[in-house]
Amino acid sequence: MSGLTGREWPRVQVSPGSGVVDRHSDILLVVPALPRTGLEPVRELLRLCRRPDPTGRDRAASLRALLDRPPPAQPPAFALLIRGDRALRVFAHGPMAVRIDGEATGTAGGAPLDERVVEDGWRELTVAADGPTGAPEAADALGLDLEAGRVPGSAVTLHPAPASPEPAAARSETALQPVVRFRSVLLGESAARARGGKPARVRRPPLPVVGAAPGDDAPSTGPEVLVEGVHCARGHLTDPGRPTCLTCGTPLAPGGQRIAGPRPPLGVLVTDGGTIYPVTGDVVIGRDPDRAPEVLTGRARPLRLSDAERSTSRVHAHLTVDGWRVLLTDDGSANGTFMSGSGAAGPWLPVPPGAPVPLAHGDRVRLGRRQLLFDTWREGVVPSAFR
Amino acid sequence: MSVVDGIADYVFLRELGRGEDGRVYLARPPHRLGTSADAVAVKVLTAGGTDGFDAVADELGIFAGLGAPELIPMYDLGADGDLVFYAMRHAAAGSLAAPGRDLSRREELLAVARAARGAHALHEAGLPHRAVRPGNILLDDSGAVLAEPAVAHLLGHGRTHLGTGARGGLLEFVDPQLMRGHPAGRASDIWALGVTLHLVLTGHGLFPALVSADPFTAVRIYLRSHPEPGEDLTDGERAAVATAVHPDPARRYRTAADLAAAVEALARRPGSDRSGGRIRS
User: Fold this and answer.
1) Residues of chain A with pLDDT under 70
2) What would you report as the CA-atom Rg of chain B, rounded to the nearest whole angstrom?
3) Interface contact flag, B9 A203, Cβ < 8 Å
4) For B105-268, which CATH class?
5) A26 inside domain
6) In chain A, how many domains are there?
7) How many CB atoms lie within 10 A of CB A78?
8) Reported ipTM
9) Which CATH class is domain B6-89?
């Protein structure tokens, strides 16, 4: 993008290490060392840096808000460089060292967030954790340059961009485009044209034809969990505690033999907005469930209920699946969680915080102003057209 | 998303529509696409976050790389900040749900058959489409093309919903087998093609009780009923619909190409050139 001439980023060499370096449009973030536990503040820092901020004010404000939090939610030491017109704005938190042309410029130990402006004119600028750091010679010898993206590293060394940067050479269509604020992958004809040849013939094995091979179409949404159950007359594994099969509704003969097998979905959750989720495992429900630890670690799936009025908490309640039971727990939400076993009219009973309550098919759940329905399929009479 | 006038190096000309997972804009394409088109359609996905970007790139790369004449040509996939977008050909004559001109029944049937051929090409390359419905059968001067497959479920931390069908009258396009935990595949796309075919033939849905119900009621009804092909179908039409939406997936058409051949046969019959049914969705 020639329009950005005069605001080119310098060349960025990353020194190896166990921290993280992220370069994205006009920002460069250096976290020299990641904490052993509690990566969420770092994730938040990365998200904050990726957010567009045309005025440059929002980012500094959110940065300060992040640092105002109690210690466990605080990020580790970091430095954030923001490219301005003829200067770099450098924010630093914790023991960081900024060296300009070999000279240390003091550390940012005192204030929670040290801010300074480094005017252009330097030849080498190094940002690293304060303390003895290895010189980035290896990086220099290899000619490393992080144009964009997120990589492991402990420190960065910047060299000003050449006065007239060479035009970017032709790149593969998957490469990150330098100095541009977005990334893109050309598809189809455009990709073929960029390659000057025929389109790539990438494909996967054909989808199975139902009935062609046994087991191809088995229910498989979500991680497979083994449970103990009984087989119904039609061969479905089901909850021995119910009078009929969960999958097909066939009445169960008493005293069936207990067998362990993969658990079928236990029903569906429907939001009042009409979105349908099969219940195959734990679910975190709220306005912003993606940041719940269970979701980040992959143990639960998020069910997002957008709510402009914020009557629903970020993490409002969660659903846990225990054997054949589905349990609902309120996560200490601001407006509470309520349950009705008899439709919208109620009565609506409060779900106490932290105490799991079993959910039955047909139950409605109220979380702030939003509602969910937990239900399951029922085998009806098959019309004559299909017999 | 607030009012936007562009994304990445695309300049938006106007909004074309809103779907369950994003908004579509008419946009001026950047030179880097190498396309001669004056305008392209750009879809911006509403689900924030770029965690699944590579998975989206894989699937749309396969779709676009097929170059099948029954699939919409795609040009570009990108991420700008937290938003994922992609660019494709702008189908100027609307969709089967909102055609830009009156279509005869034969034209509608041939459009469904083309979509089925497109879906088949995708299945042979290993991908289900997951979003077959009249609104995604796009009309162009060169005939109907099937729109891009659903990809929003690939973004974020394992979001696994089956769509927001219960609100927009799209519920019946969701194969009941998906609600029971079966994976999306040929059979679930064949179901959706069958529902589309029925809509083309009769002008109404396969689940008459679903009309104007609230989402909870709609889903409760849907979970407890079977499709009911309309009374006014000929025997041949009824057989084609019933074979596509059979409750037992093993008794449906084996492939979308088989369904396409059956629909093409219906289109060849005399009388199929009268004016078409009224389609929604």
Assistant:
1) 1-9, 52-57, 85, 106-111, 132-141, 161-181, 197-201, 212-224, 379-381
2) 18
3) no
4) mainly alpha
5) yes
6) 3
7) 25
8) 0.86
9) alpha beta
